[in-house]
Write a structure and sequence with these properties.
Length: 758
């Protein structure tokens, strides 16, 4: 420590002996922040001691530790203390203090995904939002969650024809549910009838099998996934939601006033069976839902009518219901998208303007951070850091060859207990926890770019950083470390499509763009089941009301909520019109940070507020899709079975004439091809308006639009135009855009040309 620092501390220590507290008995203390600027340059000075000594000057030596709440000592200098107003004024005048201010309650942003998309809580909303019913086909729901509170709700909309399958452990919240306890997975409740309802219907499906062990024979969610997606789409406003303090703020769905109909189709033992999926669609369509959200899919793509999701979505479309599908989690491989039917909405997953960081502090003062581990624990002290290779369970016949990977039973509990353990390779932490480790350091072997919770404090670092950690461990006989709690920081580069998000092109119809759009799907905080621990890892007993997870399963309900928002303003719009509104108002993505371009994000990033007033829409109905299917080679006989009418494929429609808000051309590498698309737009903006076309295109792609001006004279008027695209592709993808602009509305569609496989 520098001599000046010693003098400062000695002076403070001596002076405090002569100072008594100025606290007036009965005077209320409040929490204040004492900000002192940058850290002292003297490396050995104890910041906490320095803060205590400062506080002693105003509160007295005996009370300083009691009133010191927290010290800032990592990035800047300052502390938090409980002070009277007089003490606050005295501290404000002390040398070295920049400012002292009260610990005010700020407006926090947690499930800030809706704010990030431009749909704040105070956005314009239609009173008919409470009449919108979103059907959630998933793992069920945890009805006691605050996100599904029925406070302020009236009876279900008159159009609702569904039911609530009640049981000993579940009822819809048209009853007030008072949880009692869980005994052997039987959730005991008592019910008090009320007249209000957020969850207006619930069904469960397990066709041809018995209910799995550990599951609920009801729509109650044993896994958490369905509760998370339902609250993302339609959850009510919940203040102070967090995952044990991480991402603390206000949680809400896109349409907080909308109703929820639950269809449990996925089970812990065997996933989501096709029979159950179709049974749920079958009921939901008749029940009267307005939007369907389906965050699941197959591992391999299938033909449209060999896919239960595409089939269910087709019949939903025929009945005026838009289905929002997750694109899939098998990215970034090309053509990995598994939900891509043109009559549904395929949703990719991207980041929001927040990420999580976890710091590993080594005994040599080096600090490394990762964005993969979600550490909800508080580790206050430096602890011994050991290598798993050095602590094999010799009594059990193990050597360092096995223990270095932290295999089950390979670790010597007596040597591991209370220490931070480095394990070679990746581990979910359960073996380290079972061995009594206080923390875990592992290598990130190529994460998907999203954070993951562990059952003990964990630092997950890339290989190059792990090398530095090992160098430190090998340089001393008493290596120590501390794993700090995860913090949230701003992420300016968002949105970026997640690496796990499935990519196009469409594997069945190569000249239809898939996915359609991207929405927040990375590290989303939403409601969770209390039927299991939130990590679901043996030994972890923590149960969370809210959890942070990632996937296109999370982006799908964002799109469903946005579709419901649009539907609340335009209840008579077709599924195609709502889909068009979402796509043509999407925010363009940054091509430099999203190098897979439209195959990653489709039309762009979801913008619900703009989608409610798009100007023009590309509309389509069952007849249009039937013409498309005729052109795809489906027989009249099969299509008649699908449609239930006398459909005849007399005129086969080409894929380029299907009235969708995107333009896609697939060609052989090195060839030049020209395609003409026919499109019709419907005016839903100003009655009298003139739109002029604006086209951008990559070199190698030329686009001609006729006519280049569209003049409307009334709402609902339809006008047709053609787009002729000529492309010579020597690389995988060329992209551009077509925008109809009347000075108020900008109706944007992506144009894509790419080289397909021979």
């Amino acid at each position: 420590m520098a001599p000046l620092s010693w003098i400062l501390l000695i002076t403070l220590a001596c002076s405090t002996v002569l100072v008594s507290s100025s606290h007036v008995p009965g005077e209320e203390r409040e929490v204040y922040i004492v900000y002192m600027g940058d850290l002292p340059k003297a490396g050995d000075i104890s910041i906490s001691s320095f803060h205590t000594n400062m506080l002693q000057e105003v509160v007295g030596s005996s009370d300083a530790s009691k009133y010191l709440v927290h010290s800032y000592k990592r990035s800047f200098n300052g502390f938090v203390a409980k002070l009277t107003k007089d003490e606050m004024k005295r501290l404000s005048g002390m040398k070295g203090v920049v400012s002292v201010f009260p610990n005010k309650k700020m407006q926090l942003h947690t499930t800030r995904s809706w704010d990030f998309m431009g749909l704040p809580l105070k956005a314009q909303r239609n009173t008919t939002e409470s009449d919108i019913i979103v059907g959630m086909l998933d793992t069920g729901i945890w009805p006691e969650s605050a996100s599904f509170s029925d406070k302020g709700f009236g009876p279900p909309p008159s159009k609702w024809k569904g039911t609530c399958q009640t049981s000993a452990n579940f009822t819809c919240n048209k009853f007030q549910i008072e949880p009692q306890r869980v005994i052997a997975k039987i959730f005991l409740i008592k019910m008090k009838p009320t007249l209000c309802s957020k969850i207006i219907g619930a069904r469960y499906y397990h066709i041809g099998g018995s209910i799995p062990v550990g599951e609920f024979e009801s729509a109650r969610d044993a896994q958490g996934h369905g509760t998370h997606t339902a609250s993302t789409a339609t959850g009510g406003v919940v203040d102070d939601a967090s995952l044990f303090g991480i991402a603390s703020g206000t949680a809400r769905g896109g349409v907080p006033s909308a109703r929820i109909a639950v269809y449990k189709i996925c089970w812990a033992d065997n996933g989501c069976k096709s029979a159950d999926i179709l049974a749920a669609f079958d009921d939901a369509i008749v029940d009267g839902v307005d939007i369907i959200s389906l965050s699941l899919g197959a591992s391999l793509f299938a033909d449209y009518f060999e896919d239960p999701i595409a089939i269910g979505a087709f019949h939903s479309m025929k009945n005026g219901i838009l289905t929002s599908n997750s694109a899939g989690n098998f990215g970034p491989d090309p053509a990995s998208v598994t939900n891509f039917s043109p009559w549904a909405l395929s949703v990719a997953a991207s980041t929001i303007d927040r990420k999580f960081l976890t710091k590993l502090v080594l005994g040599d003062n080096h600090v490394y951070q990762d964005s993969f581990s979600l550490n909800t624990f508080e580790m206050k002290d430096m602890l011994p850091l050991i290598n798993a290779e050095d602590v094999p369970n010799k009594a059990g016949g193990f050597t360092g060859t096995e223990s270095r990977f932290c295999f089950e039973d390979s670790l010597d509990v007596s040597l591991v207990r209370g220490k931070i353990l480095y394990c070679e390779g990746f581990s979910n932490g359960w073996t380290a926890l079972a061995a009594g480790a206080a923390g875990l350091v592992i290598v990130d072997e190529g994460s998907s770019g999203s954070a993951f919770p562990f059952p003990l404090p964990t630092s997950c670092l890339d290989a190059s950083t792990i090398t530095k950690v090992l160098q430190y461990m090998n340089s001393t006989r008493k290596a120590t470390a501390k794993i700090e709690g995860t913090i949230a920081v701003d992420e300016d580069s968002a949105p970026i499509v997640a690496s796990f998000s499935a990519r196009g092109p469409n594997p069945v119809t190569t000249d239809i763009l898939s996915p359609d759009i991207t929405a927040p799907g990375v590290e989303i905080l939403a409601a969770w089941t209390e039927a299991k621990t939130f990590t679901d890892i043996p030994g972890d007993k923590r149960v969370a009301k809210y959890n942070i997870i990632s996937g296109t399963s999370m982006s799908c309900p964002h799109a469903a909520g946005a579709a419901a928002y649009v539907k609340s303003f335009h209840p008579t719009w077709s599924p195609a019109a709502i889909k068009s509104a979402l796509m043509t108002t999407a925010t363009p993505m940054n091509e430099k940070t999203n190098t897979d371009l439209e195959f990653a994000y489709g039309a762009g990033h979801l913008n619900p507020l703009k989608a409610a007033n798009p100007g023009l829409v590309y509309d389509a109905g069952a007849v249009d899709y039937i013409k498309f299917l005729c052109g795809q080679g489906y027989s009249t006989e099969n299509l008649r079975l699908i449609t239930g009418d006398n459909t005849t494929c007399t005129t086969n429609g080409t894929v380029w004439d299907l009235n969708i808000p995107s333009f896609t051309v697939s060609i052989r590498d090195g060839k030049t091809i020209t395609h003409t698309f026919a499109r019709t737009v419907t005016n839903v903006g100003a009655a009298v308006s003139t739109y002029k076309v604006k086209v951008t295109a990559s070199p190698g792609l030329t686009v001609k639009v006729e006519p280049s001006v569209l003049t409307f004279k009334s709402i609902g008027q339809k006008l047709t135009f053609t787009v002729t695209a000529t492309a010579a592709v020597n690389e995988r993808i060329l992209s551009g855009s077509l925008v109809w602009d009347d000075g108020v509305f900008q109706v944007r569609s992506p144009i894509v040309a790419y080289a397909s496989k021979p």
